[in-house]
Amino acid sequence: MSWRKGQSGIHEADVHAVAFVKNKGGLIAATQRGVYEVEAGTGDSGLVPGLGTRTQDLVPSPVKFVINFDAGDHRVYSIYSDADDDWVGVAADHGIWESSGDSSHWIQSLSPAQTLDQRCYSVFKNRDEIFAGTAQGVFRRKVGSTEWHRDQGELAEKPVFNIVGDEAFVFYVTDEGIFREKTGEDNRFIKILSVAGSVNDSDETDEFGEEKDSYDTRWIRAVTYKNKEIFVVTKTGIWTSKDFGEYWQRFESTGLPLSYVEKIVVVNCQTSHGQWAPDPSKHDGCFGPESVLLLATSKGIFSFQHHRWSSLYQGLSTAVVNDVTVSEQGDVVIATDQGLYYLVVQKMSSLNYQHERERFLNEPTARQ
Question: Which residues are CB-contacts of 238 (< 8 A; sequence separation ≥ 6)?
Fold first, then answer.
């Protein structure tokens, strides 16, 4: 496995966030200047290979600049693509941008007056409701409505860095821990994980003496929720729960640069074509009972497989990985400070399994 840099029409080197548009197969990528749409390509030389294939056709992927940030120097924290339709949301330091159906048409749907409210760290859609996590609490609105409502109560003034969930629960990551809300019971929050010790245990000012964004000093670095299991990456370890946060178990994290984690992604299995697939129910030929975890950090990208963490470094010209996304077909793309890269995986049918297993076990560990 190795990384290949996409030959893209994205003009900025530093790509803040990236996400597959699940029903269209293309990508949404964001930089300080705006948002790009990358259509699905048909070959390995494009930004994204033909999804679900590994052909050698030299056809690049078309790229469109779909949002131009006026000031031209903004920070995008996250992108969310809904699994059930073509809705996409972008959370940035000046509000929420979203598109539904036609990804060439975007609106800035949330732009509150206060500076901290404008700083949106996360956006999430759950059935008929849309959530925005800001530096001062949670905003939510119904699909089809244009009116946002600020949550009251326990999360009213807290920075909310990430929001994940499903039809049963929504989880909110704050500087005090993780709160759980049962779907349909608005503003009834239960804390399921508390932050231990000082939240900002690193320097709170940058090299110029300016106060750091609380997002950069957060103790809970990343969270993901997949198949009723939640993974939480903190500065001191990785924890997992299979019962909605009632009971937690420590997960292997030896040697990982935990303070530099940006994103964690669960990938359930590999297909017979050698691709990592997010949902084994959608694919034939999946093998292996264990999941693969991908960890994006500013010190490299790591995978957990065969009970160990390994660095996936081959083909990368940088260690700064801002985001990682996986398509329904198993394609993996990362956003770095040197552009977008996609993972090239050799077809499993042509592999000598014993040889590949031995080669994988000789890869450097996370500690190395």
Answer: 231, 232, 250, 251, 252, 253, 256, 258, 264
